[in-house]
Amino acid sequence: MQQEYSQIKAMLSITKGSLRSIFRSPSAVIFSIAFPLIFILIFGFLGSGGKVNVQVAISKNADTNNPVYMSIKNIPGIKIVQQTDEQIKEDVEKGRITAIIDIQKTTTGNAPFLINLTSSDAVNPQNLQVLQSILNAVIAGINQKQFPTANTIAVINKNVRQIPGRVYRTIDFILPGQLGFSLLSAGVFGVAFLFFNLRQQLVLKRFFATPIKRSYIVLGEALSRVIFQMFTAVIIIGVGHFAFHFTLVNGIVTFLNIMLLSFVSLILFMGFGFIVSSVAKTESTIPPFANLITLPQFLLAGTFFSIESFPSWLQPICRILPLTHFNNAMRNIAFEGAGLLDTTKELGILGIWIVIVYIVAFKTFKWE
After folding, report:
1. pLDDT tens digits for range 279-330
2. How far apart are CA 44 and CA 36, in angstroms?
3. What is the distance between the alpha carbons of residues 122 and 27, in angstroms, rounded to a whole number?
């Protein structure tokens, strides 16, 4: 009796063959694993020494009608953050804000004003020392110009109030961006070149001579790409965590949430690859089309530095890009301890992108 043809077995055979070819491809290994790891190593070593970054908040109860506050507000080296009390406390705990400055009038002592600082264990001590030096210089400048006969306009309380905090390292920002870099590169370039070459080499046409259905051909090839990239994600996260202390707040639970997020994002990025493979007329036109999709996201989606660094008119464009929402969601999951259900906004936007991209991919995809 003739055995019924198995679509699943045929699909898995395609997956196995495609996966083997991916691991044998130097370009796939370099773009998916080597480049992100190089960036992680560079930023990991650079970040191990900490970065001087003086951002402060002013206590809501502070006296702001005095020369000290006016001078602090006009110093280019100090950025005063305007946020809610809850956000300020959270950023101090993570070391993003160096200190909360509280300026109060005094009725005793040698100075009219007392400056109290509130910081956390997560703040780089060098940043706090720089802030104290700047404040001392401000006070000295005011004394010299406006109060030459007075002892001093203000003094800084030497007892800095410390609140518990968790260190926010450079790697906690960089690694999510590098994982996104790897997923987007593989999803767009990998899929685009793969299906273009399958058509050019008449491999798809040969598949048509077999009983396997078209959908299983696509699934088989896509599954090999997913397996390879999930393997890549494990390597990137593992190196970041064990070599540079990348934060996984809830351990294995956080890791699994990141893997699920990476899977959803990879599905989206592969959709871009299907579109590029269809619109490209020759192999040499694939890189320009792929770069139109990937390069803006590498530069504007918070991969290497925060989108807050960009001009205000550019930030809304940054927040439209799908890679931005992957990076934001992953940073929230890894460092904040959020679950996938806590990142519904980012997942929702990624879902909208998936629908749009695959509608376009379905309309443009060519088999021959």
Report:
1. 888 888 888 899 899 988 988 898 887 887 788 888 899 999 999 999 999 9
2. 12
3. 40
pLDDT digits (tens, 9 = 90+) for 96-149: 788 999 999 887 767 888 999 999 877 877 788 888 888 888 888 888 876 666
- DSSP secondary structure, 294-340, as one string: HHHHHHHSSSSS-GGGS-TTTHHHHTTSHHHHHHHHHHIIIII---G
Q: Give the type of residue at 194.
A: L
Together in a domain, 215 and 281: yes
**How crowded is residue 166: how many other Cβ atoms within 10 Å of its Cβ?**
17
The residues with which 215 forms a beta bridge, in sequence order, are none
> For residue 55, what are the β-bridge partners?
79
* Same domain, yes or no: 228 and 147: no
Across 200-211, b (16+ Cβ under 10 Å) vs e yields: eeeebeebeeee
Burial letters 181-198, b for 16+ CB under 10 A, else e: bbbbbbbbbbbbbbbbeb
Range of the domain at 79: 55-163
pTM, entire model: 0.72
Residue tagged 């890189």 (tokens):
287
- What angle, 0 to 180 degrees and rounded to 10, lies between the N-to-C axes of helices 286-300 and 191-200? 170
DSSP type of residue 155: E
Query: Is 256 within a domain?
Result: yes
Q: Say which amino acid occupies 144.
A: Q
Looking from the CA of 179 toward its CB, the CA atoms found within 13 Å total 36
Cα–Cα distance for residue pair 6/96, rounded to 1 Å: 56
Name the domain boundary from 105, 137, 163.
Answer: 163
Q: What are the two backbone dihedrals, phi and then psi, of residue 76, each rounded to the nearest 5 degrees?
A: -60, -30
Which residue type does 227 have? I
What is the C-alpha separation between 83 and 92, in angstroms, rounded?
A: 12
Through-space distance between the first and last CA atoms of the chain, rounded to whole angstroms = 35
Residue 322 CA to residue 14 CA, distance in Å, equals: 30
